[in-house]
């Protein structure tokens, strides 16, 4: 039965209706698994909409073959524009955003609606990943998945951040907050969260779970980390000035600090024989000491990885994690310098574009 499940009270007029919006760009590799997982939910959505953001593969044909609605964007405008278009074209009281590389557990929609239906002041619910990837492409992908699972599990409960990969938001909350910032192709969830937390309570739950097909090659992952790191400081400064909202962190602050000090110590160690020969020996070992400090900065993380994959993978994980952090702090430093040289304010998008269909 559409939009119903035993034990969900919904609203005065009946169970909460859910529209699933899947933004998509050349996602044929995972899209079939993603959409089939939606169609197999124990809590049936009233509609499943694929917003095709200018794909050149067979994504649209796969969605049509499975009986899903397709909204085709005239050009590739980014995931924020695709999500905004999906909200405007749907009618459910709840919009469940699902990335095209995530396949939901069968009870994911129902568990999200349970939380919304029994907690009227909660306007947004988002979930976590399974520890196993949707498509296992090797150790780098396993690193990404386990890190994502760990930090989300650490914050389960009421939070101030929403991650749109698998997230349910009430439509009236979307109207109040306004659309996602279409000028951002990275960190759009960070910017949106700074506005969302002023309007409603947000819950991160371990009961809404999906298997994710993450990146599996190191260089593209580092490139993505750089892109996401550069706007972080400006976004955090903008949120702090206007909203006073502190957002959850994916990385432990002590680990970020150790990586920043390590990055700063490298030129000191290299130049010490020329500039301070008396301290050259001490400065030469400083990067190794800081690398060790990084590995123990968040002891729960290596314990979690060890339990999942064993000692050899834990060593690999920590090496990749350190490299990612070095890129993170370098990108944040560049973003902060750009902000200081040329401060800019992020324009707030107009809320009228997210009303949805009657």
Describe the protein's architecture and organization.
The protein is α/β, with parallel strands linked by helices. The protein has a domain at 18-214: Spore Coat Polysaccharide Biosynthesis Protein SpsA, Chain A (Alpha-Beta Complex). Helices cover 49% and strands 15% of the residues. It has helices at 28-39, 59-65, 79-88, 108-118, 139-154, 171-177, 188-196, 218-229, 232-242, 253-275, 280-297, 300-309, 311-341, and strands spanning 18-24, 47-52, 69-72, 94-98, 102-104, 122-129, 157-159, 166-170, 201-212. Strands 1, 2, 3, 4, 5, 6, 7, 8 and 9 form a nine-stranded mixed β-sheet that branches. Strand 2 (47-52), helix 2 (59-65) and strand 3 (69-72) form a beta-alpha-beta unit. Helix 5 crosses helix 12 (300-309), helix 8 packs parallel to helix 13 (311-341) and helix 12 packs across helix 13 (311-341). The chain is elongated, with a radius of gyration of 22 Å. Mean pLDDT is 89; it is low at 4-12 and 241-245.
């Amino acid at each position: 039965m559409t939009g119903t499940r035993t034990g969900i009270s919904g609203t005065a007029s009946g169970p909460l209706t859910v529209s699933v919006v899947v933004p998509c760009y050349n996602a044929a590799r995972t899209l079939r698994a993603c959409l089939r997982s939606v169609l197999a939910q124990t809590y049936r959505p009233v509609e499943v909409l694929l917003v095709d953001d200018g794909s050149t593969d067979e994504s649209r044909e796969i969605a049509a073959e499975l009986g899903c609605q397709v909204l085709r964007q005239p050009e590739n405008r980014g995931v924020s524009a695709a999500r905004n278009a999906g909200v405007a074209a749907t009618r459910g009281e709840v919009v469940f955003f699902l990335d095209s590389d995530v396949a939901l557990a069968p009870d994911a929609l129902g568990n999200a609606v349970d939380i919304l239906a029994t907690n009227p002041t909660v306007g947004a619910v988002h979930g976590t990943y399974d520890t196993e990837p949707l498509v296992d492409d090797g150790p780098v992908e396993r690193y990404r998945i386990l890190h994502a699972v760990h930090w989300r599990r650490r914050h389960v409960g009421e939070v101030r951040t929403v991650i749109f990969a698998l997230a349910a938001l009430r439509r009236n909350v979307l109207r109040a907050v306004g659309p996602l910032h279409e000028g951002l192709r990275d960190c759009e969830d960070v910017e949106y969260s700074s506005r969302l937390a002023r309007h409603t309570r947000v819950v991160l739950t371990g009961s809404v779970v999906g298997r994710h097909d993450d990146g599996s090659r190191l260089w593209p992952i580092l490139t993505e980390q750089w892109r996401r790191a550069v706007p972080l400081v400006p976004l955090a400064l903008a949120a702090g000035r206007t909203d006073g909202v502190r957002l959850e962190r994916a990385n432990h602050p002590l680990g970020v600090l150790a990586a920043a000090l390590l990055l700063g110590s490298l030129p000191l160690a290299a130049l010490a024989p020329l500039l301070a020969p008396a301290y050259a020996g001490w400065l030469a070992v400083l990067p190794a000491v800081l690398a060790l400090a990084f590995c123990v900065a968040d002891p729960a993380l290596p314990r979690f990885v060890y339990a999942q994959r064993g000692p050899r993978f834990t060593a690999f994980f920590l090496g990749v994690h350190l490299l990612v952090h070095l890129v993170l702090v370098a990108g944040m430093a560049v973003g902060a310098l750009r902000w200081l040289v040329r401060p800019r304010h992020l324009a707030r998008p107009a809320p009228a574009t997210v009303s949805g269909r009657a």
